[in-house]
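User: Sequence recovery, please. Input:
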């Protein structure tokens, strides 16, 4: 194989990790009724199957990136993909809800080893003239892969190859992952960051513990009647997070390399952009879960029929993501305002339809709000990434990207936990079609609060700073390209 041919295969190979990680986060949504029927999974187990993956995925992202810098990005990519394949096999072989939850936690952790290497390899392994197109495809795969998981998942469950049922949505990763590992070892160049960072185990443990103390009671508290331990756990998350931030600040001042670079938050754009990410990802992930439960539990659609309902969402997400990069280049952060407004219209349309139609709602009524949600999401994702990373110094780009990715994943997990709690709390003991529609409507009004909070933030983000920072004319260090 020539070096040119090998270079052109780099992007498809590394984007396979982005697609698989996004796909496996969302594909379980269409299989929730199957988990209930075959594994007798309750509401807590269902939410942990979804949110648990996002939790361990987010917890390991920054560490995964640092391990790539230490041991080489190709090595970590191949090892992470191999481990992800094994974890997917364990998911497919699970015989109980507890086993599936444990395998999903492992799957998320292994995804955190392979996914951070994607952006690093785009930067280090591709020539500069190919990187803008590569980033556009990265955003497309990131935005469309998860939604496509619900469509393809529905097709797999309907086809039921080998009579394996829901297990096929995990076992399909085994041949794909095996091929990706072989391709990675063949075509990916050996790259390593110029500066080899140190790990921050205390920071990893502290951040993960603080978020786990908040997430676990949100997922399990309602089912157990909000016992004392749930409130104690929520309360404990605050001092644990405060102590972790104090440690990170002290480590940075001492010349160390903290997990969280707190100087990033001196940028108004970075902080506000993260807030927009929290609102968007929490509402988007939670709304996908609620929609799937309504389609299959309330409207009694098959997994294939439910998956096909997400086709407008998937198609418009990918189309808008591809168009988003040039639109952002031309119109700047105003694209983020437009995406936020479309998201708000999608949630409001969905809620109003359920309010007036109730149990008489059909899948056809949902195509318009789902299409709007895809359009808004596709416009929002690339523009919000640009807003968060705007005016970040080059030496902070890796840390900023890690904080962004971690925030996105934890926000999705929290959205699933909170909106799932609202939905199941409104559903009742013996739900019918009308009860599902009413519970979904209640969750959508809660989702509308997030959409309303996001819109004014996007107006603030689009305003340029009063005095843009001007680099010193003699400082050329930021213009030096990274060496592979």
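Assistant: Recovered sequence (484 residues):
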């Amino acid at each position: 194989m020539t070096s040119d041919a090998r270079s052109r295969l780099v992007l498809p190979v590394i984007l396979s990790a982005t697609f698989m990680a996004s796909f496996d986060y969302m594909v379980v949504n269409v299989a929730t009724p199957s988990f209930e029927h075959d594994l007798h999974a309750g509401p807590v187990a269902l939410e942990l199957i979804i949110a648990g993956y996002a939790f361990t995925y987010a917890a390991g992202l920054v560490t995964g990136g640092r391990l790539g810098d230490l041991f080489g990005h190709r090595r970590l990519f191949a090892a992470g993909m191999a481990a992800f394949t094994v974890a997917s096999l364990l998911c497919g072989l699970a015989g109980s809800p507890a086993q599936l939850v444990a395998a999903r936690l492992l799957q998320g952790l292994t995804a955190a080893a392979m996914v951070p290497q994607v952006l690093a390899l785009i930067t280090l392994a591709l020539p500069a003239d190919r990187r803008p197109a590569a980033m556009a495809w990265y955003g497309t795969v990131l935005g469309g892969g998860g939604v496509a998981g619900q469509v393809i998942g529905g097709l797999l469950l309907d086809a039921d190859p080998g009579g394996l049922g829901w297990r096929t949505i995990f076992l399909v990763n085994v041949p794909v992952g095996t091929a990706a590992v072989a391709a990675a070892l063949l075509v990916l160049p050996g790259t390593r960051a110029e500066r080899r960072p140190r790990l921050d185990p205390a920071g990893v443990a502290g951040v993960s513990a603080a978020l786990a103390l908040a997430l676990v009671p949100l997922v399990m508290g309602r089912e157990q009647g909000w016992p004392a331990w749930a409130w104690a756990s929520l309360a404990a998350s605050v001092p644990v997070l405060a102590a972790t931030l104090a440690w990170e600040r002290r480590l940075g001042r001492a010349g160390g390399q903290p997990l969280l670079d707190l100087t990033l938050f001196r940028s108004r754009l970075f902080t506000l952009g993260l807030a927009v990410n929290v609102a968007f990802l929490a509402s988007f992930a939670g709304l996908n879960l609620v929609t799937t439960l309504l389609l299959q539990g309330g409207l009694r659609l098959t997994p294939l029929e439910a998956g096909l309902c997400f086709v407008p969402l998937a198609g418009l997400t990918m189309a808008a993501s591809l168009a988003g990069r040039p639109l952002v280049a031309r119109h700047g952060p105003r694209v983020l305002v437009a995406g936020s407004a479309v998201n708000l219209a999608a949630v409001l349309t969905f809620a109003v339809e359920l309010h007036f139609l109730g149990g008489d709602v059909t899948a056809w009524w949902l195509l318009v709000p789902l299409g709007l949600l895809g359009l808004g999401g596709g416009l929002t994702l690339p523009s919000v990434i640009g807003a968060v990373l705007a005016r970040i110094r080059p030496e902070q780009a890796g840390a900023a990207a890690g904080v962004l990715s971690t925030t996105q994943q934890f926000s999705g997990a929290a959205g699933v936990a909170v909106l799932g709690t609202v939905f199941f709390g409104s559903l009742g003991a013996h739900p019918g079609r009308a009860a599902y529609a009413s519970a979904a409507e209640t969750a959508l009004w809660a989702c509308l609060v997030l959409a309303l909070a996001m819109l004014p933030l996007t107006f603030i983000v689009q305003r340029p700073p009063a005095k843009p920072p001007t680099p010193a004319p003699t400082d050329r260090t930021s213009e030096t390209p990274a060496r592979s």
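Residues 268-298 form the longest helix (31 residues).
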